[in-house]
Every structure is written in structure tokens, then in C-alpha cells.
Design a protein that fits this description.
The protein has 16 helices and 16 strands. By secondary structure, it is an alpha+beta fold. Pfam families: SET (PF00856).
Length: about 500
């Protein structure tokens, strides 16, 4: 950290390798800024393979199928992995006798990431991942065998990229390959990648890639983290989200705080091989995420739901059968609406009414299904340019997010920013100003400035423009005439920060 050491690695009882504050840290302070050892795009992402930036006119390599935003990005990728993948793809074409995409393009993201990490390691004669935890001994024999089979495939592509299957083998390449050509050790590395890889997100918190960050792997999970990770392109930034005294362990969250803790803890046990005790804050979020209101007296019953696992069962004692049947019914209606043809928005809106306006049962204001359904409806309405309907669900998403997440959490600020854009678009200038200002500066209970916007400069500038435009329009209206010199609010809203109308996450 250039002489300003903010954390140190240590082994803590019951925690293993950990990051510990080396000095007192203020809220919002950068603890770690790290470029990845390797990174890959997730499937169906239209981004530059190197910078992870979105673009309309990407350069396409016909041999590897990779896309790059600029020649500079292509050149930067060359020594890390691009040349090796180009060589391996050409060698594979000769063997297959076809010109299709290389087979590893269809591999799982974690396996493609491991291949790319090995390619760079061979090139640089380094293996910085040696200290990463793999939990190999905790894996079943079937899983170990599966990883060994994947490791063999990975080493074949690695050898092809080094030209070892060509007519003229280079001794140096053979020697570099032999340094890593151990199937069992490579399989253990694949296991370590599974445990230590970070999901890379863009400015809108949409998942775009998977990255291996060697130094950041020391940060453990906590149900109430004191640090938060974000990404500037491919660069990982970890900041404190509250003041941290010297000697305290620095932790991030490995899963969304907006998930039920049952789901989050199941993920930790299955994927990371550990469990964590619950916390008062997590239990309070669970109550919000699982509350179903029953009957005219709005009796609160806890029945959870998860987007991936469906019904999660009761989270509290009591007579929950009626509420459980209601949540299951809404879930099934939602699935049918997704699969149905025709007017998807109308069918989803019918599900929304059943879920939120029923007399016998209705989802609580922050129920996880209510939030997920509102997000999907906003996306669908925006896609069809149904702006009046979209803003209804944008308001729902913002309200739910503020109930679930800590006040300064980026999800809260981003939901307010999207809402501000729609409010401006529809001519609700005072509301656009209020939402934009709260997105940028918080509501007094927590400031999002550093946590959300410091690493999202482009998005922050767009919200500032939205607030400024709303002020111009509101002042013009108060004087009784339109702002004729400035673009209309709808035109300006379309020109600034269009991604806010394209996605909720």
C-alpha cells in the first residue's frame, strides 16, 4: 500500500487466514485496491474481455471469439492470456478440422478463470495462488475426481497454448509447462478458485465477470461486514463501511445482505465449507424479508422465499400453513407468467395484485418475493417503454431496499438514482431532485458518497446532471414558462445515464 499499510494478514482462531486493520480506519477509507491476477466474462456478457467495459462496437477475434473495446485492451490482454488462447484455438482447429469456437468457451466460468490464471502463471513463471485455501480434504471423492478430470482438460489447453503440440517444440515452453503439469495439484488449484474467486459487478451491480484477486482472498465473510467491495472495471476496491479500530478483523460479505439468512448460510456451507452464527441485524432483516400479512387485522406471519430455492419454510413458530400456501401460490403464478406468451407485463401485474392487495394474505412491504417481483416488473415495463407503470415499481424497489439494507449501502443509493431518473423523465421534478440528492448524499442516517459513488464516477456525474436538469425544469415551471433553451426533461433523461432505465441490478 505504498508505505501506508492499512491491513495485515494474520491467522485468527477459528477464522484461518484473515485481514486485520493495521491502524485505525475511517468510514469509507480504501483498504485495498487490486488488479486481478486473472478475470473472465460471465456467459452472454457483451463487454470487452479485458476491461469489462460495455460497448456497441467491440473488436471481434474470429479465432478465439473474444471481444475487445480497443486495440490497447487487446494488446494488454496479449501477454496475460490472449496469445496463449489464440495459439491453443489454432491448434484445436487443426485437430478438429473445423473453424468453430474453441471448446473452452463453453466451460464454466470458474474453469475458464483457472485456465487463464495458469496461462499467466506459466508466462510469468509465478504461482501466487499457492497460499489460497482449497478445502480439498473436505470435498467428496466424486468432486475430487471431477476436478481432476477438469484439471486434465485445462492442462491440455495450456500445453496447446504453449505450442507443445506443434511440429517445432520450444524447450523453454516445455520446461514452463512441466512446472505446473501436475493433475492433482492443478485440481486443488481449481478447488481454490471455486472458493476464492470474486464475482465482478459493473456500476449498476450487475454481475459481469469472475476474477481471482490474490491479496483480497484473505478477507473473510461476516454477517455484519465492516467492509464493502466494489469494482472499477476490472479493479477491485475494498472500503470500510464504518470506522474500524486497529486490530479488528476486516470482513466483507460473500452473499447479498438482501437474501434470507437461511439461503446465505446454505451458500456458505455448500460453497465455502463453513457456517456463521446469526446476528441480531440479520434476524431483523429476515423478519422484514419474510413477513406475510394475514387477515383483516394484518397478523404478521414469517414465511420466507428465495429466488433460487423457492419457498424457504417458516422462520418463526405459529400457524403458518395458510400463509405458506399463499406464498407458494404466488410463486407458481409468477413462474407461469414468466413462461406464458403474449403480454408479459399484464400477466406479471396480475400476479403483483394477487401478491400485494389480497384481503386474506398479502406480502409485507419488504418481503423478498415482493422486491424480486417489483424488480422484474420494472425491467419489463422499461423494456416496453411503459413509463408510468415503470415508476410505480421503481418506487417499490426503492422502498423495499431502504427497509432491508443498511442506509449507506450502495443498493439503496442505486435504487434512488434509478427512481430519480424516472421521476425526471415523467416531469416530477421535485421528486427527481429529492431522490437524486438522497442518492448522492444520504438521508442523514448514513452517507453513501464514498461507499457508492467514489468508485462510480460516471454514474455519479449522471445523477448530478439529472438533479441539475430537474432544478432547471422546476424553476422554469415556478415562473410559469418552459425552459426553452434547455433540452426537454424527457430528452435529457434519455441522453444522460441511459443504463438507469435498462436495469435494476
Amino acid at each position: 500500500m505504498c508505505g501506508d499499510v492499512r491491513f495485515r494478514a494474520a491467522r485468527l482462531p477459528g477464522r484461518g487466514r484473515s485481514a486485520v486493520a493495521a491502524r485505525p480506519l475511517a468510514a469509507g477509507e480504501v483498504v485495498l485496491s487490486e488488479q486481478p491476477w486473472a478475470v473472465v466474462l460471465l456467459p452472454e456478457q457483451e463487454c470487452c474481455d479485458f476491461s469489462l467495459q460495455r460497448g456497441e462496437r467491440l473488436l471481434w477475434c474470429r479465432v478465439t471469439g473474444l471481444h475487445f473495446a480497443t486495440r490497447e485492451d487487446q494488446k494488454a490482454a496479449a501477454d496475460l492470456y490472449y496469445k496463449a488462447e489464440l495459439e491453443a484455438a489454432e491448434a484445436g482447429r487443426k485437430v478438429r478440422g473445423t473453424r468453430g469456437p474453441p471448446p473452452w468457451r463453453d466451460w464454466p466460468a470458474s474453469l475458464r478463470l483457472a485456465l487463464r490464471a495458469l496461462q499467466r502463471g506459466v508466462k510469468a513463471a509465478e504461482q501466487p495462488w499457492q497460499g489460497l485455501e482449497s478445502h480439498w480434504e473436505e470435498l467428496s471423492e466424486a468432486r475430487q475426481q471431477q476436478l481432476e478430470e477438469s484439471a486434465a482438460r485445462c492442462l491440455d489447453v495450456l500445453a496447446a497454448g504453449l505450442g507443445l503440440f506443434g511440429e517445432e517444440e520450444v524447450p523453454e515452453a516445455r520446461q514452463a509447462f512441466q512446472a505446473v503439469a501436475n493433475v492433482r495439484q492443478t485440481a486443488q488449484f481449481l478447488a481454490a478458485v471455486d472458493v476464492n474467486a470474486f464475482t465482478v459487478t459493473d456500476e449498476e451491480l450487475r454481475e459481469v465477470g469472475l476474477g481471482l484477486y490474490i491479496r483480497a482472498a484473505v478477507f473473510n465473510h461476516a454477517e455484519e461486514p465492516n467492509c464493502l467491495q466494489s469494482f472499477v472495471g476490472r479493479q477491485l476496491v475494498i472500503r470500510t463501511c464504518r470506522p474500524v479500530p486497529e486490530g479488528e478483523e476486516l470482513c466483507i460479505t460473500y452473499a447479498d445482505l438482501g437474501q434470507l439468512s437461511l439461503r446465505r448460510r446454505a451458500l456458505l456451507r455448500e460453497h465455502f465449507h463453513f457456517d456463521v452464527p446469526s446476528s441480531q441485524e440479520a434476524e431483523a432483516r429476515d423478519r422484514i424479508l419474510s413477513t406475510v400479512l394475514c387477515g383483516a387485522d394484518s397478523k404478521k406471519v414469517q414465511v420466507g422465499w428465495d429466488a433460487e430455492c423457492g419457498l424457504q419454510g417458516e422462520l418463526a413458530e405459529g400457524e403458518c400453513a395458510f400463509a405458506r400456501d399463499f406464498v407458494r401460490k404466488v410463486h407458481n403464478q409468477w413462474l407461469r407468467a414468466k413462461d406464458a406468451r403474449g403480454t408479459k407485463v399484464a400477466q406479471l401485474q396480475a400476479v403483483w395484485l394477487d401478491a400485494t392487495a389480497g384481503l386474506d394474505c398479502r406480502l409485507g412491504a419488504g418481503h423478498s418475493m415482493r422486491l424480486a417481483l417489483a424488480r422484474e416488473l420494472m425491467d419489463a415495463c422499461v423494456a416496453q417503454e411503459l413509463w408510468q407503470e415503470a415508476i410505480v415499481f421503481a418506487r417499490e424497489v426503492s422502498a423495499c431496499s431502504r427497509l432491508i439494507y443498511p442506509p449507506s449501502w450502495p443498493m439503496v443509493s442505486l435504487s434512488l438514482a434509478r427512481l430519480a431518473k424516472l421521476e425526471l423523465f415523467l416531469g416530477n421534478f421535485a421528486a427527481a431532485i429529492r431522490c437524486g440528492e438522497e442518492a448522492l448524499h444520504g438521508s442523514g442516517t448514513g452517507s453513501p458518497t464514498k461507499l457508492c459513488w467514489e468508485d462510480r464516477r460516471v454514474a455519479a456525474e449522471e445523477i448530478q446532471q439529472i438533479v441539475a436538469q430537474a432544478r432547471v425544469e422546476e424553476e422554469a415551471m415556478s415562473r410559469g414558462y418552459a425552459a426553452q433553451e434547455a433540452p426537454s426533461s424527457k430528452q435529457k433523461a434519455l441522453e444522460t445515464g441511459s443504463t438507469y432505465l435498462q436495469s435494476l441490478d
